[in-house]
Amino acid sequence: MCGADDGRHHEGGAGADADGAQASFSALLEDSAEDLYENAPCGYLSTALDGRIAKVNRTLLDWLGYRRGDLVGRMRFSDLLTVGGKLYHETHFAPLLSMQGEVSGIALELKAADGSRLPVLVTSAVKTGGDGQPLLIRTTVVDARDRRAYEAELLRARQEADRERDRLRTLATTLQRTLLPPALDDVPGLDVAAHYHVASVDEVGGDFYDLFPLAHGSWGLFLGDVCGKGAAAAAITSLARYTLRAAAVYDPSPAAVLGNLNTVLNHEYTGDDPRFCTVIFGLLAPAGDEGAFHLTLASGGHPPAVLLRADGTADYLPTPGGQLIGVLPEAEIATTTIRLTAGDTLLLYTDGLTEAHTAQAGVRYGDEALLDFTRSLAPTTASGVVQALSALLDSLGSGVDDDTAVLAINVPRPPGEEQR
User: Which of 104, 120, 348, 410 is the least buried, fewest Cβ under 10 Å from its Cβ?
Assistant: First the structure.
C-alpha cells in the first residue's frame, strides 16, 4: 500500500512540474507588444515625413549609447548618419523611399554618442493612412558589425590570394625563362629567330628549344615538348635540354642524340609516373658552296618541320614513324637530310599551334591550315615567319591552350637580290 501511495505521489509531482513548465512558457508568449518592440534583436525607429525621430526602441538606444530624450523630437534620422551616409541619404535613399514607398537592405553607418561608428543595414517603409496619404516612416536597423568583419576578412583573404597568385606567376615566369636560351647564337651565314608563346602565366610550360655550336663549324638545334605542365614538366624540360646538348658534344649524329635522351628519360622516369616528350633535333653544317647548308633532322614523335623554299613553295619534311622519347627502352628515330640554299627557310614548332582552337566551335587550327599559312608567306626570312606566327597565335587568343615554341632558320639571299 505504501508503495502504491508513493507511486501516485511521484506521478502527481511530475504532472505538476509539467504544468508549471507549460505555464511559464505560455507566460513568455504573452509578452506585451511594447516589450517586444523595445527589446527586439534589431533597432526600430519611426520618424515624421521630414525625418524627425518620433519613436525609437531600447535596442537601438543601447547600440548608440543615447538616451531617449536625446533623439525623440530633437534629431532627424539623417543626423545619426556619417557624412558620407548623410549625402547618400539625401541623394539616393530619401528620393527612392519617396518614389517607391520602401527601400530595403541599404548599408549605412550610424554615429554613436561616443563618436564611434556602427555599420548597419537599413530598411525603411512609408506608412500611409486610409486615404493613401503618407503619415510617417518606419525604419528597421540591423547590426552589421559581424557582417562587416566577415567582409573585411574575405577582402583580406582575397588580397592575400592575389598576392600569392602574383608571386607564383613571377616564379613561373622566372622558371620558364631559365628553361630557354637567353638569346640564340649567331650562326655565320644564317638568319635565325625564335618565339615562345605562353598560354597561361600561372603554369610553367614544357616547350623548349636551343641552337648551339659544335665542333668543326657545325651547329646543333632542337625543339621539343614535354607532356604536362608545372614543376614536373619543368624538371623534364631542364633534363632534356641539357642532355641533348651534352649528347651532341659526345656524338652529334641526330639519331644518336635522341637515342641518348630516350635512354635517360626511360631510365629516370618509369613505373607509375612515366614521363616522355617529343623532340626534333638537327645537325647543321656549311655545304661549302654558295652559302648553302646541309641539315640532318631526327624526330622522336614530333610534328614535322616545314621547309619554305626560295621558289615560293612550302611543304612538310617527312620524318615518319618517330616514337615518343622516353616511352620505350629502344625508340625508333626517324631522320631526313636536306640542303638549304639561298632564300630557303626551315620552320620548327610545337603542337600548341596546330592544336589551338579556332573561332569555329570544336575546330582545331590543324596541319593543313598551318601549311596553307606558310605557303602564303614563302619565300620569307626566319624573322618574317616567326613574326607572322606570333601574330597568328595572338589572333587565336584563348584558343591557344598550350604553350607554343617556334624556331626558324634561313639562308639569306645574296646582297642586292630582292625577295619575291
Answer: 104
Contact between 333 and 294 (Cβ < 8 Å): no
Q: Is 208 helix (H, G, I), strand (E, B) or coil?
A: strand
Q: Which three cell numbers stand for residue 382?
A: 626566319
Which of helix, strand or coil describes residue 379?
coil
Q: Cα(222)–Cα(179) distance, rounded to whole angstroms?
A: 13
Query: Residue 304: in which H helix or E strand, if any?
Result: none
- Burial class of residue 25 (count of CB atoms within 10 Å of its CB; 0-12, 13-18, 19+): exposed
Residues in the chain: 420
For the chain, residues with pLDDT lower than 70 are 1-31, 168-182, 201-202, 204, 270-274, 321, 416-420
What strands lie across the sheet with 293-300, from one edge to the other? 207-213, 219-226, 277-286, 293-300, 334-340
Kindly tell me the sign of the dihedral angle through the C-alpha atoms of 86, 92, 97, 103. negative
Q: d(Cα 94, Cα 145) in Å, to the nearest integer?
A: 24
- What pLDDT was estimated at residue 163? 75
- Residue of 174, 107, 171 whose CA lies nearest to 141: 107
Output Rg (C-alpha) for the chain, integer angstroms.
Answer: 40
Q: Find out whether the peptide bond into 213 is cis, omega within 30 degrees of 0.
A: no
Which pLDDT value is given to residue 30?
58
Burial 126-135 (b: 16+ CB within 10 A, else e): beeeeeeeee
Predicted pLDDT at 291: 85
Residues 226-269 have pLDDT tens digits of: 887 777 778 888 888 889 999 999 999 999 999 999 999 888 87
pTM beyond cutoff 0.85: no
**What is the predicted pLDDT for the residue at 358?**
87
d(CA 286, CA 218): 7
CA distances from 271 to 274, 309, 326 (A): 6, 45, 12
Res 13: pLDDT: 57
DSSP state of 311: T
CA distance 382 to 291: 16
What pLDDT is attached to residue 339?
94
Cell reading at 234: 619543368
Closest CA to 389 of 283, 314, 338, 322: 314
**What is d(CA 9, CA 16) in angstroms, rounded to the nearest whole number?**
11
pLDDT at 155: 80
